[in-house]
User: Fold L-lactate dehydrogenase from Phaseolus coccineus.
Amino acid sequence: MAMHKSSSGSALGPGGLDLTQAFFKSIMNAEPSSPTKRHTKISVVGAGNVGMAIAQTILTQDLTDELVLVDAIPDKLRGEMLDLQHAAAFLPRTRIQASTDYSVTVGSDLCIVTAGARQIHGESRLNLLQRNVTLFQKIIPPLVRYSPDTILLIVSNPVDVLTYVAWKLSGFPSNRVIGSGTNLDSSRFRFLIADHLDVNAQDVQAFIVGEHGDSSVALWSSISVGGVPVLSFLEKQQITYEKEMLEAIHKEVTQSAYEVIKLKGYTSWAIGYSVANLARSILRDQRRVHPVSVLAKGFYDIEDGEVFLSLPAQLGRGGVLGVTNLHLTEEEKHRFMDSATTILQVQNHLSI
Assistant:
């Protein structure tokens, strides 16, 4: 079921009166627009709280020429599309479409997947995951069919395993399948450190890597503020700090999402900004470094099994352009390996 309403149509009224020629007259010796001009298209699969927060942030930040929404519930989908279209006078010009049919995504530069099955009371995490695999078997193949050159950005949870599932189902090279991973976790980490030091979070460089979840790894050795490495600075200044304090900050990062869900029922705004941030780096070829879920095989002694985990990766029009060659302490490396083992154990029980 297609529900297309173009923001650029010139027909007016029920009779379809075309006013283009009346309003605008071509200048002398004009040629048609150059076909080489870049037209950007983003498709968002899943019009729930997360998908709509992402769509709204992408629109307000003027990141695309065309935005497509896909969902299985037609009435809600049409309502969301119309609600966004009605804000056209307050937003950068973007063509907004919505459909339950994946053909509407044709020619997408970036496909963002937020759709996921909801957990039933008493259901095991593994059973929920298997239901999400079944859902992805209906989502990924049509996205690939209609946009064979797209980049897949997976947001659905558990994001690391589902990014692996999307990679397997798509047949894409690994650089074109990315999970949102710990990009948001790292933002929470930076906020908490900035809050402790009373500085702007944008001046804090800090990464959470590994699983987007309870086994994530805080890279304390990588933290810097205004270019100053924090831990080595404290040691040189002979300022003592408690390791328990560091662990408490990391625990607060891992518990942040649970707290938001407990208080308002779901998370939406922060993940919306996080994913729009990734979309900007990819589509505008910013070559910025983000901690996102990538194929981690070959990094930090992970040689057995194909597992997606978050590592600081450089993103651009080609997707993942490279992974930062970080120096991990032995403890950080050990925790990262534990994170990989946790994900692999879950993957081994899946049927794709």
Observations:
- Residues 125-146 form the longest helix (22 residues).
- Residues 189 and 253 are 6 Å apart (CA to CA).
- The chain is about 40% helix and 20% strand.
- Confidence is low (pLDDT under 50) at residues 5-10.
